[in-house]
Design a protein that fits this description.
Shape: globular
Strand content: 15-25%
Bound molecules: acetoacetyl-coenzyme A
Helix content: 40-55%
CATH superfamily of the largest domain: 2-enoyl-CoA Hydratase, Chain A, domain 1
CATH topology of the largest domain: 2-enoyl-CoA Hydratase, Chain A, domain 1
CATH class of the largest domain: Alpha Beta
Distance between the termini: 27 Å
Number of strands: 10
Order of helices and strands: EEHEEHHEEHEEHHEHEHHHH
CATH architecture of the largest domain: Alpha-Beta Complex
Structural class: alpha/beta
Length: 260
């Protein structure tokens, strides 16, 4: 499949989606959001993808936000549709049955930070600047930032970022728990690939189910979530990969997982 605004690649079990509008600092317009949703669907259809990396083209930005030029003439109805496009694409990402990694290689602002927040693991280059500057344009976050940011860094930090519109650098982002690690720009993609390959070497169903347990369980009462965990744990015992994983351990050899 070809895309106008994305570069979609696969190497072994690792997929990479690069938002490719470097002249506009990879701003998210409707086409990017639609293509992103399509690329996520297509990658999910390919069993072989067990971990997915998202990043931005060029050396300045991950994504500098929703496309302001496209939003400027919008009325409320179009803005609602546009917001929905973002919510749908990002929910697809969150629901993907494989790990997703944001390689934040520069500005991650507004919709760009919201995209990163929809990924499972966030790693940043020293050059990254992160923020929710929507208030500068007299709007709120529109692709989930007011909710996912709170869940990650807590209410008051999220309010500070959203109310001031300030950018934080990568170190500060790590301090407040927004990103996991900070590294030199040239180390970012190799690091993300290494993490992706490590995850891809594990039992794929175990990764998919672990992700779902964390995501769904987060909003559930603890006892109900733990019951769900016990059921998922039990169900995995009926899989080829579970038998393979335990047999391989006992036979002192590496396991060969098939996702079955
Ligand atoms: N939308 C559209 N175009 C954008 C953009 C965006 N979000 N961010 C940058 N660009 C474009 C600029 O218009 C400029 O294009 P031209 O060369 O054609 O003029 C190009 O990218 C380079 O940007 P700058 O010249 O501004 O570069 P800079 O180094 O001076 O500043 C920046 C970089 C601080 C990131 C600045 O571009 C900026 O503040 N961008 C906007 C950030 C923002 O407000 N993001 C939130 C958008 S609202 C949103 O995302 C809503 C939501 O939640 C859904």
């Amino acid at each position: 499949m070809t895309y106008e605004t994305l570069i979609v690649e696969r190497s072994g079990h690792v997929g990479t989606i690069t938002i490719n509008r470097p002249k506009a600092l990879n701003a998210l317009n409707s086409m990017v959001l639609k293509e992103l949703a399509r690329a996520i669907h297509e990658l999910t259809d390919v069993d072989a993808v067990r971990a997915l990396i998202l990043t931005g083209a060029g050396d300045r930005a991950f994504v500098a936000g929703a496309d302001i030029a496209e939003m400027a003439p919008m009325g409320p109805w179009q803005a609602r549709e546009f917001s929905e496009l973002g919510h749908v694409a990002f929910a697809l990402l969150e629901d993907l049955p494989c790990a997703t990694i944001a390689a934040i290689n520069g500005f991650a602002l507004g919709g760009g930070l919201e995209l990163a927040l929809s990924c499972d693991l966030l790693y940043a280059s020293e050059k990254a600047k992160l923020g929710q500057p929507e208030v500068n344009l007299a709007v709120t976050p529109g692709f989930g930032g007011s909710q996912r940011l709170v869940r990650l860094v807590g209410k008051t930090r999220a309010k500070e970022l959203i109310f001031t519109g300030d950018f934080v650098d990568a170190q500060k982002a790590k301090e407040i728990g927004l990103v996991l690690e900070v590294m030199k720009p040239e180390e970012l993609m190799p690091h993300c690939q290494k993490v992706a390959e490590k995850i891809a070497s594990k039992g794929p169903l175990a990764i998919a189910k672990s992700k779902r347990l964390v995501e769904r369980g987060y909003d559930m009462p603890l006892r109900a979530a733990n019951r769900q965990e016990a059921e998922t744990f039990a169900l995995l015992f009926d899989t080829h990969d579970r038998r393979e994983g335990m047999a391989a351990f006992l036979e002192k050899r590496p396991p060969v997982y098939t996702g079955k």
